[in-house]
Design a protein that fits this description.
Rossmann fold; 3-stranded mixed β-sheet; alpha/beta; binds 2-amino-3-ketobutyric acid; UDP-galactose 4-epimerase, domain 1; 7-stranded parallel β-sheet; globular
Amino acid sequence: MQKRILVIGATGQIGIELVLALREKYGNENVIAADIRPDSTGLLGEGPFVTLSVLDKEALEETIRTQGVTEVYQLAALLSATSEKNPVLAWDLNMNGLLNILELAKHDGPLRKVFWPSSIAAFGPTTPRHQTPQTTVMEPSSVYGISKLAGERWCEYYHLKHGTDVRSIRYPGLIGFRSEPGGGTTDYAVDIFYHALKSGSYTCFLSAETELPMMMMEDAIRATISIMDAPAEHIRIRSSYNLAGVSFTPASLARAIQCHISHFAISYQPDFRQALADSWPCSIDDSAARTDWGWSPAYGLERLVEAMLEGVRAKISG
Ligand code: AKB
């Protein structure tokens, strides 16, 4: 059967890159980009776009039915820092957006497969922080983390009760230059490159030694498409898979940037996001993803820094 893919939250940080990659693989016309705001990024290229709120279940149902959508990537969400400022809105969007899709996937319509992103934020201060196991204590202390943990439970529940083919990854902080992050705690690791290239200095909102799991966007998109392409029987975990790329601190990232821009200077002024970062893992054990669907990251710190400097330089001079 011909795939018809709907990407909700298409103008966000992951959405833009995912739409481009899926269009490359499946053809522009088979990937419908959807977002609550019209596309003002100009980055999505050729292909269908619909203005749609994931909270509008009727409009969602109509789009899926009339467009014959077979797969949905539900990316619309508030990230960690924005969620702390709007807890009720974050819960509504992050939870009911997912539930609307899972309910539609349950019925006899064309929709057969769902991707939903979880996050390292689903872990909490009582989780083992180093090489965090796939299955472990999960007591998230942030609104965003609570919504991600609850979402994981819903995904597994719909799979067990209704056979829903839902697949999910616990993304680390994502780093890319084509699209801008917004409202996350790991966003410093993108902002730093723009500041390094524009002004040669950066004031970081996390402390120097805050180690977090991160990943180059190319790796994250490859992982997302791989898990969706894997045979259903390989997907043993229906809550969400741990996924690791590279772990670093603001200080070690700054040192790697200084290898290319020797005058680059970093200072630290931690704000409320420090508490969020302190409640998350430093590094992740992703052996289940490696075993089940062949995951392996391609970007270490040096390669990531080179790619970001090249990409951001081209963008700002461009
Ligand atoms: C955030 O910082 O909120 C996100 C995440 C870790 O899910 N990048």
